[in-house]
Amino acid sequence: MQDFLQQTLSGEAPHQRRGETAHLRWQWLYHGILILEPTEPVNQALVLSAGIHGNETAPVEIVSQLVNALLRGEKPLRQRLLVILGNPSALRTGKRYVRYDINRLFGGRWQQIDDCDEARRVLRLEQTLETFWQQGACDESRWHLDMHTAIRGSWHTQFGVMPHSERPWPPEFLDWLAAAGLEALVFHRAPGGTFTHFSCEHFGAASCTLELGKALPFGENDLSQFRAAQQALAALLYGEPMPAATASPRHYRVVQQITRLSEHFTLHMSPDTLNFTAFPQGTLLAEEGDKRYYVQQAREYVLFPNPHVATGLRAGLMLIEEGEQTQALPR
Known about the structure:
Elements: H1 4-10, E1 18-20, E2 24-30, E3 33-38, E4 44-50, H2 58-71, E5 80-85, H3 88-93, H4 117-134, E6 141-150, E7 158-162, H5 171-179, E8 184-187, H6 195-203, E9 206-214, H7 227-238, E10 250-259, E11 266-267, E12 278-280, E13 284-288, E14 291-294, E15 299-303, E16 314-321
Parallel strand pairs: 4-5, 4-6, 6-9, 7-8, 8-10
Antiparallel strand pairs: 1-2, 2-3, 3-5, 7-9, 10-16, 11-13, 12-15, 13-14, 15-16
């Protein structure tokens, strides 16, 4: 198999489902799922995923380039690697998803929707991760990098979203995120249905959702914008030199979630509101019947505002920056 992405988009199984190079053994597990293992013993394991949303193509192209170099035998591999293109059906259509946003369905939440291809896909991904982690040594380090792009523009064009975790983040993981060129890190304070939360909660992986630029169709991405991320991934996979971090990412934490519960939901933000736009205390953010969302802290920043999500899903997150003085409105 010479091109993992094209094989995935074809919807057909490859004629050859396993093989090896001078550096590694590879096995095609299912559409968009590939495992690669170095011939030399290692104590690190990485899940590298992209294409959870089918219209977010830049990370898919980056992953494809990195993996194809491994499959052609051009590069060594320094850790066990599970590569996932998350939603092949959506990738083929260029849509965010076909029926359901699978990045809200992990941790068994797929059982709450109709039996469909996307529910079965999430189950397969959950089972694949479990098997992958179980096959490693007990002292193996576990990382999961899930690569996305955002629907809209952002004051921080490249940032990471960290799932809720009671464990401290490994310093080397945070150092890698800085070297990858991330300008900000957002820390969740509650569980969620994302792929990275699933790997963090259930398998103790250091995991991050990387947001790299804005969603564009295949062939329209300027991958040079993500050179630091590509170089940092090459360092992780091939053992090449790590790029130097130009700055430390700013840290934000989630303080409230805006949820759309019905057709009567209104988000009081313009369609061109950028991620990390700041709003002062007391601003009305959204309303739905008698329910109103206001800025509670002295200043809050919006992330992922989207009034068109399905009912019951997140229509936006509000953040504060770590280190800023805050004073919440009285309740």
